[in-house]
Amino acid sequence: MEQFVYLGALLFGIAGLATLDWRYKLAFWYQPKRSALVIATGMAVFAVWDFFGISLGIFFKGDSPYVLPFVLFPEFPLEEVFFLFLLCYVTLLLYRWSERW
Question: What whole-number distance in Å separates Cα of residue 67 and Cα of residue 56?
Fold first, then answer.
């Protein structure tokens, strides 16, 4: 059961960001198509960054009991997709919030 801790924490964080987004209409509840495009672009850039790091031997999955044993590619765990989404989502929300101020 502890294998789901990291994924659960990521999903909890994403849910919190979505709640803030809904409350203040910052990204997906303001311009959903544009927000999806921005986040998908950011995730693609960071995924390429990860693949370069993996191929150079800089990034690796590690051996933690808190991550799932599933990988999408060698050394690229499933949770990385959710982490990249969270990273891009929080950045977009901070940018949109700073624009309002």
Answer: 23
